[in-house]
């Protein structure tokens, strides 16, 4: 029973994604029976290559797909090389999880409100420093080459890659190796880069590739920060998909396949960069150089991470100020007065999306949690650590969302399933599952097996020892996994948008929809709601175990 | 008072093709069989095999009988074989009473009374609502022993249960454990490094080679 259920984890994860991707190919080549396409043709592709600015769209997607992981990874490595074990490091380690829960759309809005010509930053330096009495005429947000998009993605992916690295590092015993290298005369930062970096990279390669796919195919962040004339490829595909003229669906399908190709190309370029870096690194190691560049690495590593943190904090501040701002003339740094009007006026509109968001995130996370626990239980009871092909867990992050969701829509439309709550919950579940598994498996596998052994020698059935011993002992990691799962679901845009057929709205889908044209105050209200939900979840995950076990000193060590 | 007997019928354990040990022995009611040997000799694996949770990397054969009943293939929770580990392993999320109640079979009558009597017997009367994390090492060991006895086992396994106690406490616990086991008429197997353990146990001693 348990074993059967644990196989279903892999099936539920892989089948929809592979099937969706395969099915998306059919309409791209003209086959779409519900729309009268019963013969294969290349019409959609002919149309696609004639779309004005399509090359530029692909270029921008490629650019952010390759540069985002490159710069984010460089920052993370330089940081780890220079700050491991320092006070700064302790601080940042604690901040990294809550930072990760900052939803993409809210982060993008915050960044836009921070760095736009009339944004918080420009107001802070005006008119004293800049001399601007009016917002400068600069295209900062939505710039033609997607540099702001790139910046936003980097700021968002640095915490992700940092968390993945921190999770993988202990098994490499970095301090031992760095000490050894230091005894050979290497400066600590150089030692880290020469000794630890090459063994750390393979361990976080999958997350890095997930970053490539996300950065090259993101829709919500690109809608908010990305260029508009022309937009990124993924944004155009969504626009074609949503076009009232259903014949655009063929074009959208071809575009989705082109997106898949673009993401694959970005990965290929990355793999070439990997080879190049390996060669350069080998040369560098062979020089035996022990200290050159140490100061540069040190200041870059220690400097960049606080800047990333400052940008995120600044974005948060920009959102809060905008959500509460009364009249606010440029270049005043702060509004003339504060008001709750944006909130009270919107309360009615927020209600349904808020309930939907909660229902979807609770539903998808609950499903994922049950499946993950069943898998880990079956692994524990069989006594064998099944090397559940970890890369399969990453599958939903390795295929561009728009591609397999497109296929799933074609499939579910023919089953009349589209636009229902259950389908949206299932769609979210696919994205929530990997995170719940990755966050819970470590704690579950590390739980001292003797607790369960004691329980069974005392005559407790497997079920009793599960509910009365293992679940309470693992309460804190379970709640953290729930908080992470819900945070992921709350931040999702495309699955809600596509599988809900626009009929099911969440805080995120509504917030992103506002990006074209709504007032900053209104957007800020939605973004603040969007980011407070995951924050509340993490807060609960932190406080509930402390309150529950306040009279149980032993539980502090278990955590 | 149960009068039970624990028999090991040519129990042998191997790890990746290498034979670790073979034991063929019978332990009567209130008797203690002591097994001594260096680490890696398979002592703890023998106890895991008898208790029913030997890791699948080991290959084991032979029969385990309690009162003539073959328990070799029963799941651990139905073997009624109690086990004392090196650490007391009191469940940290339950109170003392919660730990003890966990061990008492559901059908038995007055749990509160059993717990009160038990705590009095080990000199910890009134400890019901205490947090296990606030107990001293000796107190924890006594609760662990009481918890084991309250689960009414038919046989008991001791996996170096005194090795982490300081020397005075160790002597005290030894006396307490063996007195209780003898009084309950339970057959026990003790695994240890410490000759003094074997001397106090006073039963047959098997010394394993590496």
Q: What's the topology here?
A:
The complex is a heterodimer of chains A (559) and B (210).
Chain A: H1 2-28, H2 43-50, H3 54-83, H4 87-100, H5 104-115, H6 120-124, H7 147-168, H8 174-183, H9 188-203, H10 205-217, H11 220-225, H12 233-242, H13 248-287, H14 294-324, H15 341-382, H16 390-393, H17 395-398, H18 401-414, H19 421-446, H20 449-457, H21 462-473, H22 475-491, H23 494-499, H24 507-514, H25 520-548, H26 554-558
Helix pairs in contact in A: 1-13, 1-15, 1-18, 2-13, 3-7, 3-9, 3-10, 3-13, 3-14, 4-7, 5-7, 5-14, 5-25, 7-10, 8-9, 10-13, 12-13, 14-25, 15-19, 15-22, 15-25, 19-22, 20-21, 22-25, 24-25
Chain B: E1 6-15, E2 18-27, E3 32-36, H1 43-51, E4 58-66, E5 69-70, E6 81-84, H2 96-103, H3 111-121, H4 137-150, E7 155-159, H5 167-184, E8 188-192, H6 195-201, E9 205-207
Report on this model:
The complex is a heterodimer of chains A (559) and B (210). Chain A is mostly helical and 559 residues long. Chain A has helices at 2-28, 43-50, 54-83, 87-100, 104-115, 120-124, 147-168, 174-183, 188-203, 205-217, 220-225, 233-242, 248-287, 294-324, 341-382, 390-393, 395-398, 401-414, 421-446, 449-457, 462-473, 475-491, 494-499, 507-514, 520-548, 554-558. In chain A, α3 crosses α14 and α24 (507-514) packs antiparallel against α25. The longest helix of chain A is centred in the middle third of the chain and has 42 residues, at 341-382. In chain A, 47% of the residues are buried. The model of chain A has no long low-confidence stretch (mean pLDDT 87). Chain B is built from six helices and nine strands. In chain B, α2 packs parallel to α4. Chain B has one domain: P-loop containing nucleotide triphosphate hydrolases (Rossmann fold), CATH 3.40.50. Chain B has 210 residues and is of the alpha/beta class. The model of chain B has no long low-confidence stretch (mean pLDDT 90). In chain B, the strands form two sheets. Chain B has a five-stranded parallel sheet, sandwiched between helices. In chain B, β1 and β2 (18-27) form a beta hairpin. Classes of the chains: A mainly alpha (559), B alpha/beta (210).
């Amino acid at each position: 029973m348990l074993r059967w259920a644990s196989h279903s984890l892999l099936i539920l994860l892989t089948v929809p994604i592979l099937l969706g991707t395969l099915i998306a190919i059919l309409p791209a080549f003209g086959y779409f029976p519900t729309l009268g396409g019963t013969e294969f043709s290349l019409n959609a592709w002919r149309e696609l290559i004639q779309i004005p600015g399509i090359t530029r769209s692909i270029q921008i997607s490629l650019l952010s797909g390759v540069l985002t992981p490159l710069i984010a990874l460089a920052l993370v490595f330089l940081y780890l090389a220079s700050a491991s074990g320092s006070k700064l490091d302790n601080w940042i380690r604690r901040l990294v999880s809550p930072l990760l829960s900052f939803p993409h759309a809210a982060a993008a809005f915050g960044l836009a409100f921070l760095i736009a010509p009339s944004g918080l930053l420009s107001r802070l330096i005006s008119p004293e420093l800049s001399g601007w009495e009016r917002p400068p005429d600069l295209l900062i947000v939505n710039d033609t080459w997607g540099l702001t998009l790139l910046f936003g993605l980097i700021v968002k992916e640095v915490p992700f890659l940092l968390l993945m690295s921190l999770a993988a590092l202990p098994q490499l015993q970095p301090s031992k190796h760095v000490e050894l290298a230091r005894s050979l005369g290497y400066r600590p930062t150089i030692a880290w880069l020469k000794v630890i970096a090459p063994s750390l990279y393979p361990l976080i390669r999958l997350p890095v590739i997930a970053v490539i796919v996300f950065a090259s195919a993101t829709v919500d962040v690109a809608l908010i920060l990305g260029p508009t004339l022309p937009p990124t490829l993924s944004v155009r595909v969504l626009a074609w998909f949503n076009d009232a003229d259903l014949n655009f669906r063929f074009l959208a399908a071809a575009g989705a396949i082109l997106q898949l190709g673009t993401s694959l190309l970005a990965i290929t370029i990355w793999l070439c960069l990997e080879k190049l870096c390996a060669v350069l690194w080998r040369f560098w190691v062979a020089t035996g150089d022990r200290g050159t560049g140490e100061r540069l690495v040190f200041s870059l590593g220690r400097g960049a991470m606080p800047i990333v943190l400052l940008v995120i904090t600044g974005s948060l501040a920009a959102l809060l100020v905008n959500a509460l701002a009364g009249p606010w003339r440029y270049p005043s740094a702060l509004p003339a007065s504060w008001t709750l009007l944006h909130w009270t006026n919107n309360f009615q509109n927020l209600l349904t999306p808020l309930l939907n968001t909660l229902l979807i995130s609770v539903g998808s996370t609950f499903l994922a949690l049950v499946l993950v626990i069943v898998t880990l239980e079956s692994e524990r009871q069989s006594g064998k650590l099944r090397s559940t092909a970890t890369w399969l867990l990453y599958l939903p992050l390795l295929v561009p969302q728009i591609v397999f969701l497109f296929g799933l829509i074609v499939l579910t439309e023919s089953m009349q399933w589209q636009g229902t709550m259950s389908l949206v919950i299932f769609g979210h579940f696919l994205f929530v599952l990997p995170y719940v598994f990755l966050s819970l498996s470590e704690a579950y596998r590390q739980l001292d097996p003797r607790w369960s052994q004691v329980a069974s020698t005392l005559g407790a059935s497997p079920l009793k020892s599960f509910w009365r011993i293992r679940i309470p002992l693992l309460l804190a990691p379970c709640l953290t996994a729930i908080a992470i799962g819900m945070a992921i679901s709350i931040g999702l845009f495309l699955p809600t948008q596509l599988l809900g057929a626009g009929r099911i709205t969440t805080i995120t889908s509504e917030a992103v929809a506002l990006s074209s044209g709504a007032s900053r105050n209104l957007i800020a209200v939605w973004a603040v709601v969007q980011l407070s939900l995951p924050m509340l979840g993490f807060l609960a995950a932190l406080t509930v175990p402390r309150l529950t076990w306040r009279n149980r000193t032993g539980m502090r060590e278990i955590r | 008072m149960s009068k039970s007997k624990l028999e090991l019928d040519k129990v042998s354990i191997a790890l990746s093709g290498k034979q670790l040990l073979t034991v063929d022995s019978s332990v009567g009611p209130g008797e203690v069989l002591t097994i001594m040997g260096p680490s890696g000799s398979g002592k703890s694996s023998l106890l895991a095999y008898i208790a029913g949770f030997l890791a699948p990397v080991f290959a084991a054969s032979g029969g385990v009988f309690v009162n003539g009943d073959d328990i070799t293939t029963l799941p651990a929770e139905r073997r009624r074989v109690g086990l004392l580990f090196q650490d007391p392993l009191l469940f940290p999320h339950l109170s003392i009473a919660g730990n003890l109640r966990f061990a008492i079979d559901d059908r038995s009558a007055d749990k509160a009374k059993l717990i009160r009597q038990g705590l009095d017997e080990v000199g910890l009367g009134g400890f019901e609502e205490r947090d296990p994390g606030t107990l001293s090492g000796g107190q924890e060991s006594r609760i662990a022993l009481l918890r084991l006895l309250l689960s009414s086992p038919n046989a008991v396994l001791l996996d170096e249960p005194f090795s982490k106690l300081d020397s005075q406490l160790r002597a005290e616990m030894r006396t307490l454990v063996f007195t209780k086991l003898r009084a309950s008429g339970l057959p026990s197997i003790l695994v240890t490094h410490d000759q003094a353990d074997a001397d106090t146990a006073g039963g047959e001693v098997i010394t394993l080679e590496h």
